[in-house]
């Protein structure tokens, strides 16, 4: 084998080894990025679920406030009716 062929072979071997190491590093980076992306996806899912729970809780609070408001109005009407009846009773008493 000629000296230039040996040198060419050695150079190709060196390049192939470097390329192999570069590919291994790229694979590690890709795996790391994939893990990070998966963590982000889990975080987004959890955040979405939390937001949905907050929305549901807010809707329940709004419904409860509406019920309390309606009940308060009913109680005010009952109190007014009671007051009118007491006035009638007091007027008839004399």
UniProtKB/TrEMBL annotation:
Give the top-rank taxon of the lineage listed in the UniProt record for this protein.
Bacteria
Q: What is this protein called?
A: Methyl-accepting chemotaxis protein
The record lists the organism as Desulfotruncus arcticus DSM 17038
